Amino acid sequence: MKQLRNWTPAVLLVVFALVAAACGGGSGDTTTTAGEPAAEPFRIAVVAPSASNDLAFTQSMVDALNMIQSEMGGASAVEVAVTDGTFVVEDAAAAIKDYASQGYDLVIAHGSQYGGSLQEIAPQFPDVSFAWGTAGDTFGLPNVFAYEAASHEGGYVMGVMAAALSQSHVVGIVGPIEVGDAKLYVDGFKAGVLAQDPTADVKVNYTGSFSDVALAATAAESEIAAGADVLTGTAQMVVGAVGVAKEKGVLWFGTQADQTQLAPDIVVASQVYHWEVVLRQMIDLIKGGTLGGNAYVIDLANGGEVISYNPGFDLPAEVKQLGEDTIAGIKDGSIAVPRS
Amino acid sequence: MAEFFTTAIIVSTVASTFRFATSYLYAAIGETFGQRSGVLNLGVDGIMLLGAFGAYYTVLKSGNLWLALAVAAAIGMLMGLAMAYASVTLQAEQGISGIGFYLFGLGLSDLLFQKLVGTPLPIDGFPNLRIPLLADIPIVGEMLFDHSIIVYGAFLLVPVAAFVLNRTTVGLNIRAVGENPEAADTLGVSVAKVRYFTVILGSTLAGIGGAALATELGIFQQNLTAGQGFIAVALVYFGAWRPLGVMFGALLYGFVAAVVLQLKTLGVIPLGASDLAAMLPALITILALVVAVQRERQPAALTKPYERGE
After folding, report:
1. What secondary structure does DSSP assign to B228-276, as a single string?
2. What is the dihedral of CA A223, A224, A228, A234, to 10 degrees?
3. CA distance linking residue A275 with residue A65, whole number of Å
């Protein structure tokens, strides 16, 4: 038993570290923009897993809400409340329920992992409209909207450009876990590379974590060692991979938000999400009395996805034209991006 | 698989190993001092996070990397002082107070980041310093002698720590206090002073470990360490409370992580097994721990607060 005691705490530590690494955690930062009490503003709350300014998933929604707010007449017309950093699903569920019971008009659960909780909470608040994503399923509930991004479309466009830019014909992709939006983007990017250059070698590396920046950096190092001279990646831990790309001087394509400021010299373009395209439709329906039931997709055709070029990067005109032609082809249906 | 055995890939994998192991090594060597004197500091990860943010913010504002290291060290020192007060003076249950320090560091580093910086902006870390002559040795040179100064520092720390612990009076006092505080006290060694010293030293190194992580990655983000501090504490057990053993543990952990990622990149590990493979570094560390530590004995007074018998 004495020997057993020696290593038991250490094993527990490793397990605890794994849990900590997997869950992230951290403090939820709640900011509320209060409106004029007399004006009866439209009240929107969002609960999201990472930081509001993560240059990725959460920021895409927060930016969209800020845009909606200014479009509709500022804080007096629309009240926006944000609870971010809720990696822990139970914390998110508590926040969602809290906003619903405070009578918000629209409560957004911004994370596919929150679906199970929402399915339980939404029926308890039939007068509140809920939205969740990225997902395509409203659970058949009359007060739930679903939204997702056709991230494979933008991924495909950038994959085509990546293949055209690669000298080594090796392109690397750093992903978190092979699910949802990340998988969709990775598969779309890969399909784009191979469509442009069928002989190209696409190295895909899922690190196993949405939050471990050091692992993402090491994954990028391994892809560069294997010959990659153009990289991309998705989820909030990719900042580590961008850092390595910058240091080694290889090119980077971003997604979810404009990542140019992370490495102005090597970021070629980013796929940017504009959730306001679908939020506007939801808000119109809610104001007309319909609280849910629809599933929305943002894509290149409806303007919810935009390829944002880095103005500081000297992109050859023919490669940019290739990108624009691919966008046009996807919009008019002449290019069908395979959806995994 | 054959693709793995090309020079470029092996060189890159080994170089990644050293870089990856660096932040663990600072934290784990620091923790070794504390544990040899009988204090378990479970707050390492939180201290690393605060050190990482402190260093990141300093570089962002001043561009001065050495000042950043000093700031991270000072933050570590302050946290160490608080930790020592809790575990030595107040005799708090060390496991519990350590987790409290971890949660404090996790929350405060994120809060400060959100309020003071917001969007993650990149910083430039220490440039690689090619060691003349040694770096020109084929293969080995690039693996070992083409890193930043903060990587070299971690590995130079190992023999220094071993020397201090095994060959100096300070080290003797630390070991005596960790094995038999009553006897040490009888001989006139102040148990409290020694433990304050080791916990503050250990936390200072944890702060520097955090700075190493932030400057090597060139970025800060919520929970940047992703549990590295806890692995560092486990590495102290792995290394049987000896600096050299701790270093081998850190290198093994880093090597397995780098090899797994490289094998994924090369497609040797199929996508379907990707998430399982991500657990390998931790699994192998646990296995090695079980096998290696069976034969070792932890400091007799570890986690036991000392109260002088009247």
Report:
1. HHHHHHHHHHHTTT-HHHHHHHHHHHHHHHHHHHHHHHTTSS-GGGHHH
2. 50
3. 8
- Judged against a pLDDT cut of 90, whether residue A309 lies above it is answered with yes
* Residues A193, B204 contacting (CB under 8 angstroms): no
How far is B286 from B292, CA to CA, in rounded Å? Answer: 10
Q: Do A146 and A203 reside in the same domain of the chain?
A: no
Say whether both A142 and A73 belong to one domain. yes
Residues A67 and A215 in one domain: no
Rounded-to-10 torsion of CA B228, B232, B234, B235: 130
Residues 6+ apart with CB under 8 A from B13: A222, A225, B255, B258, B259, B262
Q: B155 is written with which tokens?
A: 């590995």
Hey, where are the domains in chain B? 12-228
What is the count of structural domains for chain A? Answer: 2
Q: Do A142 and A24 lie in a common domain? A: yes
Q: Which of B13, B218, B223 sits opposite A243 (nearest CB)?
A: B218
| Contact yes or no for B285 and A29 at CB 8 A | no
In a domain, A165, yes or no: yes
In A, minimum Cα distance to B21 occurs at A214
Q: Do B237 and A6 touch (CB under 8 A)?
A: yes
Alpha helical stretches, state H, chain B: 7-36, 44-62, 65-84, 94-116, 140-144, 149-167, 169-179, 181-186, 191-217, 228-238, 243-265, 274-278, 280-293
- The answer to whether residues A136 and A157 belong to one domain is no
Across the interface, whether the CB atoms of A85 and B222 are under 8 A apart is answered yes
**Nearest chain B residue (CA) to A16:** B230
What is the SS3 assignment for A306? Answer: strand
Task: Report d(CA B299, CA B296) in Å as an integer.
Answer: 10
Nearest CA in chain B to A6: B298
| Strand pairing category for A106-110 and A170-175 | unpaired
Give residue B303's pLDDT band: very low, low, confident or very high (50, 70, 90).
confident
- Asked if the structure places residue A1 within a domain, the reply is no
Query: What average pLDDT does the structure give for chain A?
Result: 88
- Residue B291 tokens read as 């096998």
Give the pLDDT of residue A174.
97
Which whole-number Å values give the CA distances from A196 to A162, A189, B79, B137, B166, in the listed order? Answer: 9, 11, 55, 41, 62
Does residue A256 share a domain with residue A137?
no
3-state secondary structure of A136: coil
* Residue A6 placed within a domain: no
Q: A237 and A284 share a domain? A: no
Structural domain including A207 reads 151-272+305-332
Task: Please indicate whether, in this complex, the C-beta atoms of B222 and A206 are within 8 angstroms of each other.
Answer: no
**What is the enclosing helix (H) or strand (E) of A59?**
helix A57-71
Measure the CA angle with vertex B154, ends B245 and B140; round to 5°.
Answer: 85
Q: What is the CATH number of the domain that holds A222?
A: 3.40.50.2300
Question: Is A143 in the same domain as A64?
Answer: yes
Q: Distance (Å, rounded) from C-alpha A169 to C-alpha A152?
A: 21
Report percent pLDDT > 70 for chain A.
88
Do the domain assignments include residue A338?
A: no
CA angle A85, A27, A75 (to 5 degrees): 65
Please give the residue that has the higher pLDDT: either B207 or A256. Answer: B207
Q: Tell me, yes or no, if A178 comes closer than 8 A to chain B by beta carbon.
A: yes
Residue A38 has pLDDT above 70, yes or no: no
